[in-house]
Amino acid sequence: MKPEDLKLIVKEKYGKIAKQNNEQTSSCCGTSSCCSGVDYSTFSESYENQIGYNPDADLNLGCGIPTEYAHIKTGDTVVDLGSGAGNDCFVARALIGETGKVIGVDLTEAMINKARANNEKLGFNNVEFRLGDIENMPVSANQADVVISNCVLNLVPDKAKAFREIFRVLKPGGHLSVSDVVLRGTLHEKIQQAAEMYAGCVSGAIDINLYLSAMKDSGLVNIKVQKDKLIAIPDDTLLHYLNKTELKKFKESGSGIFSITVYAEKP
What we know:
The protein is an alpha/beta fold.
């Protein structure tokens, strides 16, 4: 599939989610009407204990809590990639205070509108949301102290270009903390199909070594995996796609799907 087609699918899918009620949505895609009964809550983590958490902005679309690991300080400028309804932006706002700035970037106009509406209710004058592509961000060079992202970069067709853009917008000495979905080892096509039906967000995921290499090739340094969690797919789900011999071989292979949170710096 061409990159433009993938982006159109993402925009359509997340546009639908943005128009649905919060209680109906779940991680990575949303309701069963959007995604044929897939259970997307596998990845999401609870934000309820996070300072600045706003339930109206939480569509359960993440696979981690990058702000917990991002070392955000008072006065920082934070850029959130794939900002959705604003969940991570508002948590970041609580950390940067009145003197910092948060910029959310999202590809989907309906999400931007939802985030702006949430921000208007909260009355923050140092949080803004910009419609744009992560591969070509509407953000000036050397502007961000911190870049965060939550379960979004796996959806970007050209990850190398995305990390080059992150490098561009970071200030020298700035850093990123991103949560994302990656693979370890080679997944059989049947297993990828099973995983996509069970937990979504897998089709765009790449091997963790390729992911970290793309970060390194962009110029980022001091790359560290801060959190690493296996996404376990139940045997009874896998057995819809694999026979018992194939399942045994997969379990012994060490391959799998993981949600990770990664830190890196711009020199």
